[in-house]
Amino acid sequence: MTLDIRGSLKNTKVSHSPFVVIDELLSNAIDSYLILNNASVNPPDFQASFEIEFKSVGGTDDAFDLKILCCDNGSGFGDDEKKAFITKDTSYKDDLDIQGIGQCKGSGRIQYLHFFENMNIDSVFASEDGLQARTLTVNADTKEIGHDTFETQSTTRTHTGTTVTLDVLKDRVFQTHFLNSDIREVFSAMSLKNHVIVSFLQRLISLQTFLGDFSIKFRSTHDDQSFDSEIIRADLPDVTEKVPVVVSYGEPFDGGGEQRQMFTINHYKLEQNKFNIGKNTIALCAKNSIVKDITPEYLKTKTYENRAQDGYFHIILIDSEFLDETVNEQRDDFDISPKSDKDTLFYAHAISYEEIVEGLSDSIAKMITPPTWDKDELRQDINEKFGITSGMIVNANVKIQYGDTDEKVVNRVLSSYQKKVVQDTADLIDMKEAIQNADPGKDDFREMVQEISWKYASTLKNMDVLNLSQLVVRRSAIVEVLRLAVKKELLIQDVPEGQRRRDESIIHNIFFPMQKDSIEVTDHDVWVLSEEYQYFDYIASDKQLSQYRWKDDEYLFDEDIDEEIQALMNKISSDNEAKRPDIAIFSHEGVAVIIELKAPDVSMDNHVGDLMEYAQIILAKSKGNIKKIYGYLIGGTVNPIRLQNYTAFANGKGWFNSAPITEHTTQTHLGELYSEILFYEDVVDRAEKRLEAFKERLNLDF
Q1: Which domains does the chain have, with CATH numbers?
Q2: Tell me: the pLDDT tens digits for 18-62?
Q3: β-bridge pairing 144-146 and 130-138
């Protein structure tokens, strides 16, 4: 039996924690001592020591290598331990009926080899022949570890124990974990003491009756300078409070109510003067050891995270059987979904990280909130700075807790609102389809229209007041810009005499950016003409017909049509190869909308034929995908006498016409074109009236 080093490194991920080797060394030292304690009548107190040596690289003080030596007074590296060491995914410790011993797969030794080139083990253990010494040396050339890789011999030493030495930090690990850090500070004696007292606090407290008057010493050395620190049993704080919390989540598919998961919150306070650990810590644990620091979930800024309260740092550690079962192999995270998946067919998912954080928030907030903190003061500040009321915060289901800043609360509120807007927008698209399928000949036509109108208004109401305000304000601004552009009152339209005017392109860009389509841009304002057009499937603005796209990103037009129609279309294209619709809108249901925009001083009667020409091209070359065509010619002036076959609207604001689309040489009927000729000012007025209706119904004033 051998341990394949290369295969083990390949199949075991590198831990994200920079302290993983320290954690694994100390955890193994404690486990080894617990084995000794279980087998001894009068065991010594637990002792472990770390010696950290920093070595200059390249003879300068700019880069340093690292050597770690860990000594313990445990049971040593006996035959069972040797067998477990060379067994991948060992369950050796799982079978030991010893309270407090860690359960693992033996991945710690793989982390040693991930981080360091060299590993040396020097151990003394008890056997039937007395004390024996056992050593193991692993370097960059070692490919596998087997029974014969260990050397065992008798010894004159009088106590069991193990010393593990790790040397020469691997460059890849240095680049990913320590490149932007001073490794002398990360692994200083004081830094390691602060890390261990927090990371192992729960385990040390739970095992203190077994470990006796224990001592964990740290020494860091660079050149001739050494620094020492120590943790002893008397340093352990009493638990401030221990709170069981039941977190409810989800709704199972059988309708049996919410599921529940039990957690225990252990709250400690460490004196700032005694343990200057530099920060408060809230963490999820597995087997009494910290795995995932979640402090930023509750203390939203580094200022709050690093601030002691009344001379104490808070250490809040969360345990549960669920966390024990889901910790990953590297012990730096949990195999838990980040967010709940409520869209599964059978909604009986395991609790998510998001649900754990939310479910524990109220209990943790009570532990970390100072009595002097005023939530109402923060609410008032948010209202004054951002105009967000307490009611808006409540409607967004956003909790304000100690550690929050006004900006972070506002960001969460806006994020909540945005999710609601996305859902409501999807509902609006469904309403558009209902409008297209309407049959005016049915008795319930107007009742259906009324129902859709109220549903539309209701959907908008569901968009929280803040988002609806933004929608109405934005659209009001667009209408005002269009009104000014039509009157040539925008500052950009104030051009010197003789310089070419750009009125038509300015107006065009207000509706939709020129030479773009809805694949390239999603922010446009064709709603000014008609609300439903905002949600059509494809919109092209001032693009060649050959560039129009259809379903699955395919081009809409092809050349494979009847030869006579082909000849006619080629002639039209040849005569007008530079012409193209200003804006063309398509739906996958076979509806095409052509919009021709003219400068306010260009007479529209000279361009009535443009709509028919585009309609012929679209019907003939759309592979049968287009069935209905609507055309709009919009401008500022027209000679009504030249509008043949057009009928004025009853209100006198524009003209309409419905005409057959016919190939002129064969008289082949291609379809129908419904067209309207409108003035810009009337389009603006109609859009403004729709906005006013929204404002009135929703009691908004802008």
Answers
A1: 2-232 (3.30.565.10), 239-372 (no CATH), 502-680 (no CATH)
A2: 999 999 999 999 999 999 998 888 899 999 999 999 988 876 667
A3: unpaired
